[in-house]
Amino acid sequence: MDRESETERRQEIANRIRSLREDNDLTIEDMAQATGRSAKEYAARESGEMDLTFTFLYKCAHKLDVDITELLTGDSPHIKWYSITHPTEGLAINRHSDFEYLHKAPYFKGRLCEPFYVTVPYQPESQNAPIHLSFHRGQELDYILDGHLRFAFEDHIENVGPGDTLLYDSGRGHGIIAVGGEDAHLLAVVLPEDGEII
Q1: In terms of domains, do 67 and 148 share one?
Q2: Scanning 61, 109, 178, 188, which has the fewest C-beta atoms within 10 Å of its C-beta?
Q3: Which domain holds residue 138?
């Protein structure tokens, strides 16, 4: 996707968030608190001036009581009984430090988890920098498919590789970077708190 198309898509998503916020009689301050941002930063994201990270979108969807697919596409999930997504298919979410998320079941209605195929690019500049930590309610399971990762959970650091599985409380600070000179890929399954459907 070229930069202009990406900017247009970000603006469309931001407009949906604003419309849903207004429809729900929520203030910018309400949404800022729900997403863990200052009112100024939230307003910049809602206006499309700043990137919309996966964690930000996830928290918006939860507060607005909609599926994240509706924020991203304007369509509601409609598949009721089962979903098959082939290797190159899924709903792309290109956000957060150049990570690429491919949602593997975006149109399954009432799902209790969010499954993603995630590409974590190797970035030489991140190797000696602190790992950015994210927070979202619930748990997350990550299965490493290929490549090697450095996983941070609060002040703990672990190196993981193909076949390793991580399961953790995603409401606490967590983050990853690719190491070893190559991109890494993983299956990430986000499990909302208390089985809440998002």
Answers
A1: no
A2: 109
A3: 91-195
At residue 181, the 3 state secondary structure works out as: coil
Structure tokens at 147: 């490549």
Question: Can you tell me the mean pLDDT for 125-140?
Answer: 91
Cβ-contact 127, 177 below 8 angstroms:
yes
pLDDT (mean) for 121-129: 94
Predicted confidence band of residue 1 (pLDDT cuts 50, 70, 90): low
- In this structure, what CATH number is given to the domain that contains residue 160? 2.60.120.10
Name beta bridge partners: 159: 150
Give the tens place of pLDDT for each residue, 9-56: 889 999 999 999 999 999 999 999 999 899 999 999 999 888 888 788
Residue of 112, 96, 107, 111 whose CA lies nearest to 55:
96
Domain membership flag for residue 129: yes
Label residue 120 exposed, middle or buried (CB < 10 Å: 0-12, 13-18, 19+): buried
Q: Which two tokens stand for residue 1?
A: 């996707």
Give me the residue label for tokens 């190491």: 179
CA–CA gap between residue 15 and residue 9 (Å, rounded): 10
User: Burial code of 72-107, b = ≥16 C-beta within 10 A, e = fewer?
Assistant: bbeeebeeeeeeebeeeebbebbbbbebbbbbbbbb
